[in-house]
Amino acid sequence: MKLELDCRKLKESKLENLKQVILENGLHPSFCVIQVGDVDASNTYIRNKINAAKKLNIDYQHIKLGEDVSTEEVIDVIKGLNESSSCDGIFVQLPLPESLDKDAIINSIDVSKDVDGLTDLNIGRLTNKKDCLVACTPKGIMSILENLKVDLKGKKATIISRSSLVGLPLIQLLLQKDMTVCVCHSKTSDLKKETLDSDVLITACGTKRNLITADMVKEGAIVIDVAIIRGEDGKLYGDVDYDEVSKKACYVTPVPGGVGQLTVVSVMENVVLASMKRVRK
């Protein structure tokens, strides 16, 4: 049985619901995006966040720093935002230049303003099922699975990622749905064996097009493609051979127009949550 879900329509519906939450609670949310350098992909991601913020009348600030900035200088900017009563959320756009200490920068964000959910404290709270701000891409993936309205309990999920951005938080979220979770990566000896046995396959490699082919996917599986790869033709693709895998899976997220839509919504949801917690203090 084929499942139907338009991620773009789901994004608009969730943004509309979020607008009502803001109005009903009398909130005035605000957030700041910190960008280092001028990577095209980062510019696109930031533009998408700003466009969503505009739809919700959320205040935003975009701080753009040069590639020659030091780790200490970025942290100083974050410290100022941590202390600012006019900033509910802080989002550091990744990737950062290799010259910077990413972990030190991320963990300098006040945990209550960590709207990307990537500080050690928020990831630790997620692991221990405590109240926290959840990493945005995994949160978006869970939104897709929940809106597909399938029973996940006891099903096998395979994640091809062990990153702190996707894989590690997603493990916890899937376990909380009582799924059996398998994590694969570049050192996995037989990737096909693991993926073929999966009811839900989530891939976030971004190393090459068509990494996941139809012969690697279980009949009737749900396939979530997180990767974004720019082809030689200038178009965007994911890890999955979409046309062929779609014939076998019951649902495959497109690239573009899939997970990224819900990741943007998750950022806005976290900004609103952070704003609501600040108001209630």
Name some characteristics of this structure.
three-stranded parallel sheet, five-stranded parallel sheet, 10 helices, Rossmann fold, alpha/beta, 281 residues, 2 domains
Low-confidence stretches: none
For the biggest sheet, the summary is:
5 strands, parallel
Name the beta content range: 5-15%
How do the helices and strands follow one another from N- to C-terminus? HEHEHEHHHEHEHEEEEHEH
- Spatial order of strands in the largest sheet: 5-4-6-7-10
Shape: globular
How many β-strand stretches?
10
At CATH level 2, the architecture of the largest domain is 3-Layer(aba) Sandwich
Number of helices in the DSSP assignment? 10
Mean pLDDT: 96
Rg, nearest Å: 19 Å
Structural class: alpha/beta
* Helicity range: 40-55%
Query: How many domains?
Result: 2
CATH class value of the largest domain:
Alpha Beta
CATH superfamily (homologous) name of the largest domain: NAD(P)-binding Rossmann-like Domain
Any overview of this molecule?
Helices cover 40% and strands 15% of the residues. α7 links the parallel β4 (156-160) and β5. It has ten helices and ten strands. The chain has helices at residues 7-24, 40-55, 71-83, 102-106, 120-127, 136-147, 167-175, 191-196, 242-245, 259-280, and strands at residues 30-36, 59-65, 89-92, 156-160, 180-184, 200-203, 222-225, 229-230, 236-237, 251-252. With 281 residues, the protein is α/β, with parallel strands linked by helices. α1 (7-24) runs parallel beside α10 (259-280) and α6 packs across α10 (259-280). The strands form three sheets. The protein has a five-stranded parallel sheet. It folds into two domains: 28-113, Rossmann fold; 136-260, NAD(P)-binding Rossmann-like Domain (Rossmann fold, 3-Layer(aba) Sandwich), CATH 3.40.50.720. The radius of gyration is 19 Å and the shape is globular.
